[in-house]
Structures are given as structure tokens and as C-alpha cells.
Amino acid sequence: MAKFILSIKWLFVMVIFVLVTGILTSNYLFSYHFYKKFFDHHIDTVSALFQKGTENITKPVEVFLYNVEALVCCRVLDFNEVEKTNRFLMEFMKKYPYVTSINYGDGNGNGYLILNDRGKWLNRIKRVGDTEHVVWNTLNNDGKIIKKIRVKDNYDPRKTVWYNQALHSKDIQWSKEYIFRTTKDPGVTASLKLCRNSKQIVGIDIMIKDLSVLLNKIKENVHPETKLYLLSNGDHVIAYTDEVQPEQSKIYTLDEKKFPLLFKALNSGVNASNITFNNQKWFVNIKKWENKNRQYSLVVLIPHVAITKSLRLHLFYQSFFSLLLTFFVFLYISRRYIEPLIDISKQMPEIGFKKIYLEKHSQRTDEIGYLSRAISDVSVQILKAKEIERKIQESNHFESVRRSLGEAVHRFKDIINIIQGFATLAQPKVSNEFAKNALDQIINASKRAIYLTKEILNVTGERKYEMKITDLNSIILSMKTKIEVSTEDSIKIVYEILNTPLPVKLDIEAFDEVLMNLVLNAKDAMPEGGTLTIKTKIASFLDKQFAVLSVSDTGVGMDEETIKRIFEPFFTTKGAKGTGLGLSIVYKIIKDHSGFIEVQSEIGKGTTFKIYLPLIKDVAMLTASSTE
């Protein structure tokens, strides 16, 4: 399917059509649907936010209880180690300030309590042998005991409500709301039996007043006249935003005198969505959810006048902004299309001199985007064409230099041959010992010069190859003795040669030179000894298969700058010991064999040369060649 392209002309038409249609239909839609949408949107928001808020309070507590269970059962946490337990529990209580205390009791009557009494940290320790006394510890902020007081108290954790509820529960047990004995504030306890079969219980006290704070924060995002109530198990009003001024140390139950509006809303029928109270109409929505053994009910009441007042205000704003939108649409079109075209035209004189970047416009999918990308592509193509032309000129120049160098080397070789010839003829006829040694040095220098000219001719491309199909593995194995003789005793040679033949087409003499060059380089890289690994394998690139020869050493390695230059003629890191032609010849030979080379190296960790030679698919050719 052809891609749809939106033209500027049709964009103008569509914008005007959408604008006019939007103004006409939005009046109807807002007037007809706003009444219900406003109500539903805010109720869903309130319910989701509040349920998430209560989960943010209860979930960490539940996860912490399970963690305590695991630590106690694995004997990592021991409540008898008081200060260690203090530090562990205080870290959790500091992170969640609504956790006011953590209680622990076992079946023998031992009890432990850590309490945050409005910023003051206290411990209560009950030992089973001390029947009528408990020890109160005052703690510093790190959980260390700084003061001890032994007081008379017949406290027994087994007699508490939270202990007995958790003892018979299979999972975390949330208690009913009650007044904390320690802080005199209303709250609720989450308790868990530890280690399943043991009579050990841990409980966490939570202040329920934090839920009222959460309700008031949510109310700010709904409407100032909204009233919200949170009920626990249908009988306790544990959080609310209005009607009753909360009293300290008091828990409220549903009462018609204290909560008349809430009482009417809950007793007007299950499906009642609105009520009338004191000649005022209210929208009613009740959301229910469960958490473990507790059921919560969130009652939201919104006055009808708040919604109708907001509706009239929104209708006014709609009319005003519709007119304002018309102006901004035309302003947008001007900036969206006219200014980009001017900007593009300013870039045109630079075509052919630099790459034109129109990133600000090229990401677009309309005509401006197509034009920007086309101009950028054209500028790149022009620069590429110039670069190709420059490379062709350089290539022609280098080809001319190569030919000239080849001719010069041939002439130089002829001169060296003459020098060597006359020196060889003159040496037997000279009786002076010094003259004989001098002629001997001339002959040896001539031989080295002739060898060097041969190497240079190899680099310049004058070499001819005798190509034939052979097994790469067999050639390598046949050279084992030569390789081992060429290396030091301190170098360990490892062969990892494939069992299957690797048929390749190559000049055996040239390949011998390639391998020995790499082996000698590896030897020079390991003056203190090391490991030389020669390995073969098969690799695939672009649907073609290659035989891969890897020569790896554990020597000094090379940096990135050296790797970039190692195949340059006459470049060497060996100083006067090297000619700088060995790897250049290797590169030229492998290139002439339709292969390529990869180099991997790191300072201090060694170097690996990988030579890729095309595999001959017809293995029968190898067999025929070997029989000949």
C-alpha cells in the first residue's frame, strides 16, 4: 500500500474543517457529557490514588514481616540480641515513620518492644523468668542502650489481642482499630506467626491518623467541598476529611449524630448514586477493596452545585479558547511551513562545499521533511563524488609512483648485480687479507641489497604466483619443524588444527613466507618467552565461506596507532633490526589471494593475526589435485 503524503494545501483544508467542526461539536459534547465525565473522572482518580496510598502503607509492612519471618527462621535475626535487633528494626521504622512500634513475643512469655514515642526511642524487654517486671531501655539514634530502668509490670505478650490473632492465623493478620497502650494514639496492628510451627509472633503498629492526612491531600486534587470517608469492615470510621473534629485517643464508629451525611449516604440503598441532604444534592460513590482479612470502603460525596458551577465556567472558557485557537492555528501554519522553506533556501549556496545538515526539518514526514532529506542527501552525494574523484587521482598518482619505483628497483638491482659480480671475480685474485675481507663485506651487502630489492618488488606488485588448490591444514602441519626451529625454547607452540580439510587456492611458497613472517613477528614480541598458538577454523561472511588461520602470541602487544600502520611499507617497531617490509608483503600476498587480514592486539596481553582465505567448495578438486 502506498504511503499517504499530506500536502500543505490539504493540510490547510483539514485544519479549517477540524476547527469549525470542533467548535460546533464541542459545545454539544461538553454540555451533554461533562456532568457525568467530571464525576466519574474524579471518583476514579480519588479511588486509585487512595488505594495506591493505602497500599504504600500496608505493602512495605507486609513485605517486612515476611522478611523478619525468613531471618528468624534462618537464625539470622535473634530478638535476644537486643542492640543488633534495634539497629535492624530502627532502619525500617525511620524509612516508614507511620510504623510506631514493633512487638515480638514467643510462646514462653518472652517479649520485645521497640517504640518511637514522638522521636524518643525506647525498648521494653520482658524475660520469662522475671514474672512481674519489665526493663525499659532508652536508646540513642543508632539503637544502642544508653539507659535502663526496671519497673514493675506484669506484661505478658501472650495476653495481647495481636498475639492471639496472629497465633491462629495462617498469614498476616490485621487487627481492628484500638488505642495503643504505649503512645495513647489510635492505630492498627499487622501480625505474623513466625516459622509456621513455632509459637513466635511479631507485630507492627501503624498509626491510622496518617490515612486522614492522605485523604486531605487527595481532596485538594478533587474539589474543596468534597467529603471523603474511609470505613474499616463497615463499622469503624478510621479516616475522614470533614464533619467531626477528631479527638485524641478516640476511635469513631458509624453514628448518625456524628456523621449524619455519611449515615444517610450509606443507608439510601446499595445503588444510590445521589442523595439530598439539608436541601442540597450530593453525588455518592462507594469503592470497596480488600486487604488480607480487612475490607475497606471509600465513600466520596461531591455537592451537585460544585459540578454545575464548574460546568458553566468551562463552557465560557471553551468559547473563549475556541476563538483563540483559530488565531494560533494560522500562526502555527505560518511557522510550520513558511519559515522552514526560508531556512532551507538559505542553505542552498553551501551545496558542494560542505554537508548540509537540516536535522531540525529532516525528521518531519511531510513535504518539508522530504525536501530537507533530499537536499541533505544531494549534498552528501556531491561530497562523496568529489572524494571519489580525489581518491582516483591519488590512486593514479600512487600507481605511477609504484611503476616508477619498480623500474628504479630493477635498475638498482642491475647495478648491485654488477658490483657483486666484480667483487666475486676479484676476491680469489687478491692476496691481501684486508682486501679479501672488504670484498667479502661487499658481496654480503650486495646479497642483502638484492634480497631487499626482491622484497620491494613484492610490495610493488611485480610478483608472480603459482596457484594451486591444496589443504591449508596440511601445509601448516608440514611446516611444524620449520616453525619450531625458528622459535626459541622458551616459547611454547600450540596447534589447534581442524580435523576436516580446508581446501584453498594459493601459492605454497608465498604462503610459507606469510606464515613464517607472522611466526617471526610473534617470536620478536615474546623476548622472555610465552605461548604461540596456531589455529584454523571456518567462518562465513556475506554468504561466503573462508578458511581462517589465526596466529596468536602472548607478547608485548600493540597500541591502536601502531595497529593502524603495521601494513605500511618500511614501517617498523624493531628499529635497525627490521626492514618494515614483512607485514607489507604479508598484506600484499593475502590480498592477491582474494583474502583479508584482521588484527587484534592489546598492550601487555599479546597479538592475534587472522588470515581469511576463500574456501574452495568443490572438495573433489582438492582430492584430484593431491593425487596429481
From TrEMBL:
**What transmembrane ranges does the database entry give?**
6-30, 315-333
Protein's organism: Thermodesulfovibrio yellowstonii (strain ATCC 51303 / DSM 11347 / YP87)
Pfam family name, one? HATPase_c
Q: Enzyme class, one word?
A: transferase
* Keywords carried by this UniProt record: ATP-binding, Kinase, Membrane, Nucleotide-binding, Transferase, Transmembrane, Transmembrane helix, Two-component regulatory system
Q: Which residues form the Histidine kinase domain?
A: 407-617
Q: One of this protein's GO BP terms?
A: signal transduction
Q: Which InterPro entries match?
A: HATPase_C_sf, HATPase_dom, His_kinase_dom, Sig_transdc_His_kin-like_C
Any coiled-coil regions, as ranges: none
**Record's catalysed reaction(s):** ATP + protein L-histidine = ADP + protein N-phospho-L-histidine
Q: Which PROSITE patterns match?
A: HIS_KIN
Name of this chain's protein:
histidine kinase
GO MF terms held by the record: ATP binding; phosphorelay sensor kinase activity
What EC numbers are recorded for this enzyme? 2.7.13.3
